[in-house]
């Protein structure tokens, strides 16, 4: 039971940390933080994750309501899951919205449009302060 729980915790930690890279100092040594005030520090294990207003169910409801399958994609019979990554900033705005897993240019652009149209999120919290957090969301396109 404990082994299963620890494995589950490690999977969650890896999922949160995925895509994070080590900073490099000016001497080129990896793993050392750079002395650069323009670097955004991103917490990978946080106390309270960023969230869409109303939670994940509301997020996926928002996506379903606002997602429009592009006409060209429908004609081609395109469907699949586009994975979108972004940062939830300290003030809840979404920044650096981009495609992590592509299906087609038409579907990718629509998925990005919908995520960018999202209302302001609740930011992640660490040590009672709002912090920046990376996030990934799958956007599913199906032909009915």
Instruction: Give the SSE order as H and E letters.
Output: HHHEEHEEE
Helix content: 25-40%
- Provide the CATH architecture: 2-Layer Sandwich
Total number of beta strands: 5
CATH fold label: TolA/TonB C-terminal domain
Terminal residue distance: 42 Å
In round numbers, the mean pLDDT is 78
Give the DSSP E fraction (strand runs of 2 or more residues): 15-25%
Shape, please?
A: elongated
User: Roughly how many Å is the radius of gyration?
Assistant: 18 Å
Which strand order does the major sheet show?
Answer: 2-1-5
Total number of distinct structural domains: 1
CATH class wording: Alpha Beta
**Separate helix tally:** 4
Low-confidence stretches: 1-36
Q: Going by CATH, what is the homologous superfamily? A: TonB
Description:
This protein has one domain: TonB (TolA/TonB C-terminal domain, 2-Layer Sandwich), CATH 3.30.2420.10. Helix content is 31%, strand content 22%. It is built from four helices and five strands; from the N terminus they run H-H-H-E-E-H-E-E-E. The chain has a three-stranded antiparallel β-sheet with strand order 2-1-5, with helices on one face. A two-stranded antiparallel sheet has the order 3-4. The longest helix is centred in the N-terminal third of the chain and has 16 residues, at 2-17.
């Amino acid at each position: 039971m404990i082994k299963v729980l620890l494995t589950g915790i490690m999977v969650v930690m890896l999922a949160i940390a995925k895509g994070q890279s080590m900073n490099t100092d000016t001497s080129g040594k990896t793993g050392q933080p750079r002395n650069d005030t323009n670097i955004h520090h991103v917490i990978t294990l946080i106390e309270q994750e960023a969230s869409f207003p109303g939670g994940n169910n509301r997020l996926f409801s928002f996506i379903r309501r606002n997602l429009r399958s592009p006409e060209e994609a429908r004609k081609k019979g395109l469907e699949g899951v586009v994975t979108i990554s972004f940062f939830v900033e300290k003030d809840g705005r979404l920044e650096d919205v981009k495609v992590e897993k592509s299906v087609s240019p038409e579907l990718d652009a629509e998925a990005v449009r919908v995520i960018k149209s999202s209302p302001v999120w609740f930011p992640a919290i660490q040590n009672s302060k709002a912090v920046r957090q990376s996030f990934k969301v799958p956007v599913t396109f199906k032909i009915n």
